[in-house]
Amino acid sequence: MAKPSARERILGSYEVILADRGPAEITLDAVAAHAGVSKGGLLYHFGSKDALRDGLLERLERLTDDDLERARSAPEGVVRHYLRSSITDVTRDLALHRTTMAALRLVLNDPIAAEVSRRCTERTRELMLEHVEDPVTAELVMLVGEGLYMRAALGEEVTGSLLEQIEEIADRIEAGAPAKATVAAGHLSGARLQVREGNPGDL
């Protein structure tokens, strides 16, 4: 595997500090020290904290687009891939999950980050509507996926039975029973709502 460039190391360090400690702990000196570069080396790639934020958000959009392409070509279909990866992205600690967790630290207080997050969600919605005919059902699929993701991200144990429930939910959706999926969506999206309404420092 190729060694990450200095720019990628710096951005990765920003991501780690942001996710672990929050925006208040971000300084150029701290990011440079974590990345193992001089402050001048950091400034060569990122001239300010805003530039670091923009780099992270560009990474988020790129990783989101890559993930949507994988979903589009997944043998199991978009719905099953979306629901399953909502859990496995977390349990496997994939790059998109790490970047998402860092970006969540910004979303509640940074309108630029909030707009990028909105665009990523809209791209996901567009893909879902390509494969789920009913818009309400497509939205329910997204809510279930977001709820599963937040449950896993908040540390809830993910068991085989939960993954089996994904098959049942997908089967019901494909059989044209969105009303039954509503119960699952309401239950599983609770963590998502708590995060939206909570203190950003709790993320």
Automatic annotation (TrEMBL):
<dbReference type="Pfam" id="PF17937">
    <property type="entry name" value="TetR_C_28"/>
</dbReference>
<dbReference type="InterPro" id="IPR041479">
    <property type="entry name" value="TetR_CgmR_C"/>
</dbReference>
<dbReference type="Pfam" id="PF00440">
    <property type="entry name" value="TetR_N"/>
</dbReference>
<feature type="DNA-binding region" description="H-T-H motif">
    <location>
        <begin position="27"/>
        <end position="46"/>
    </location>
</feature>
<dbReference type="InterPro" id="IPR009057">
    <property type="entry name" value="Homeodomain-like_sf"/>
</dbReference>
<keyword id="KW-0238">DNA-binding</keyword>
<feature type="domain" description="HTH tetR-type">
    <location>
        <begin position="4"/>
        <end position="64"/>
    </location>
</feature>
<dbReference type="InterPro" id="IPR001647">
    <property type="entry name" value="HTH_TetR"/>
</dbReference>
<dbReference type="InterPro" id="IPR050109">
    <property type="entry name" value="HTH-type_TetR-like_transc_reg"/>
</dbReference>
<dbReference type="GO" id="GO:0000976">
    <property type="term" value="F:transcription cis-regulatory region binding"/>
</dbReference>
<dbReference type="GO" id="GO:0003700">
    <property type="term" value="F:DNA-binding transcription factor activity"/>
</dbReference>
<keyword id="KW-0804">Transcription</keyword>
<keyword id="KW-0805">Transcription regulation</keyword>
<protein>
    <submittedName>
        <fullName>TetR/AcrR family transcriptional regulator</fullName>
    </submittedName>
</protein>
